[in-house]
Amino acid sequence: MDAETPHESTSPPRRPRVAVVFGGRSGEHSISCLSAGSVIAALDPAAYDVVPVGIGRDGRWVLEDGDPARLALGPGGELPEVRGSVEVALTPGRGLVVSEPREVPPVLGEVDVVIPVMHGPWGQDGTLQGLLEMAGVRYVGAGVLASAVGTDKHFMKQLFVAAGLPVLPWVTVRGDRWDRDPELCRAQVAALGLPVFVKPARAGSSMGITRVDTPDQLDAAIAEARRHDPKIVVEAAAEGAREIEIGVLGGLDGSPPEVSVPAEILVGDEHAFYDFEAKYLEESFAVPADVDDDLRAEVGVLAVRAFEALDVEGLARVDFFVMPDGRVLVNEVETMPGFTALSMFPRMWAATGLDYSALLDRLVRLALTRDTGLR
C-alpha cells in the first residue's frame, strides 16, 4: 500500500489585507475622508480584506467605521471627519496592532497593501510613505521623494524646468522673507504682471488660493495663503487658457506608463477659478475633453514626461494649461488625486474603459508587485 498522502488544505487562500488610510492633520482632512469613502465602497470585499484606518486631526491612528456612507457629504453639505476611538499602530512584522488601555494589544494581522488616500502635508508629502517604507509595507502610489516634490509646487516646477517642460512664470515667497523685505517681494511679483494667483506651496483642493488683479490685493492674498503654509507660490495667470487634465497609470510588469482620455475643467462665470465649491460640489468638467487628435497626443506625451520627471509610481493626474496661442504648459502633477464620486481621475479612467473597481484593483496589483526600499 502506498504511503498515506497528507491531506491537502481545502481552506481558501487568505484575501490580501488592504488598509485604507485617510484623514490626517492637513487642511484637506475632510477631502481625504470623502475620497476614502468612495474607495472603501468600490473595493471588492470578496477579493480584499479591507481595514479602514483614520488619522485624526491630532495625528492619532484609529480604526474607523467601514460604512462608506459615514464618509460621505452630509445632507446639508457637512464634511466628514475621522471619529474613531480605538487606536491602532503599524508595526514591522506584526501589521496593525490595536492599542487599548490596560489590555494586551490584539494583533489584526499583517497588512499586504496600504492605500494612502491622503491629501496634502503629513500624508501625501512623503511622511506617510517614509513610515510605510520603514515598516516594510507595500503601498499604492508615489514613493517618498516623488510624494514630497509633488506636494511642493516650488520644487515641482523646478524639476519640470530641469526636464525641459514648459511652465508658467512664478516666484516663491517665504514667510520670513515677506516679513523682512515685503517691498522686494512685491517687486518680484510685479515683474510677473497682473493678474497672478497666490497659492500655498504645499496645499491642495484649491485651499488658500486667491486671484490678484490689482497691487493693493496682494498683501491680503499673501496673508490668506500663509494661513495654510508659510511658503507661497505666486504664479502668472494663464489668461484665456483651457484647463486640461489627464490620468497616468504606472505600467504593469515593467511596461511604460499609460494615459487616460483627457478631461477639461469648465468653470462658470460665478467662479474666479476652479475653487473648492466648483471642484467638489458642482459638475465642473467635461469627460472626455473636446480636443483634436494632435492636442490629445501632445498632452499624453507631456503627461508621461512629467510623471517620469518627478519619478512618480502608480498613479498621477497631470494638469495643463492650453494657451490661446496653442502652447501647452504643465501646471502640476497630483500624486494622489481625488477619488470622490465627482473626482476627475476615476472619471477619466472610466471613460477610457477602466471602471472604478477595476482601477483600484489595478493600483493594488501594481503595489503588490513593488517592493519597499530602493528600486
From TrEMBL:
Reaction(s) this enzyme catalyzes, per UniProt: 2 D-alanine + ATP = D-alanyl-D-alanine + ADP + phosphate + H(+)
InterPro entries given in the database record: ATP-grasp (IPR011761), ATP_grasp_subdomain_1 (IPR013815), D_ala_D_ala (IPR005905), Dala_Dala_lig_C (IPR011095), Dala_Dala_lig_N (IPR011127), PreATP-grasp_dom_sf (IPR016185)
Give the record's pathway: Cell wall biogenesis; peptidoglycan biosynthesis
Q: Gene3D superfamilies under this entry?
A: 3.40.50.20, ATP-grasp fold, A domain (3.30.1490.20), ATP-grasp fold, B domain (3.30.470.20)
Q: Which cofactor does it need?
A: Mg(2+); Mn(2+)
Q: Name the UniProt key words of this record, in alphabetical order.
A: ATP-binding, Cell shape, Cell wall biogenesis/degradation, Cytoplasm, Ligase, Nucleotide-binding, Peptidoglycan synthesis
Q: What class of enzyme is it?
A: ligase
Taxonomy, superkingdom = Bacteria
**ATP-grasp domain residues:** 157-365
> Where does this polypeptide localize?
Cytoplasm
**What span is annotated as the signal peptide, if there is one?**
none
For this protein, the Enzyme Commission number is 6.3.2.4
In alphabetical order, the GO MF annotations are: ligase activity
What HAMAP family does this protein's entry cite?
A: Dala_Dala_lig
Family stated for the protein in its record? Belongs to the D-alanine--D-alanine ligase family.
User: What this chain does, per the record?
Assistant: Cell wall formation.
Q: What is this protein called?
A: D-alanine--D-alanine ligase
Q: Please report the organism this UniProt entry assigns to the protein.
A: Nocardioides lentus
Lineage, highest ranks first? Bacteria, Bacillati, Actinomycetota, Actinomycetes, Propionibacteriales
Q: Which gene encodes it?
A: ddl
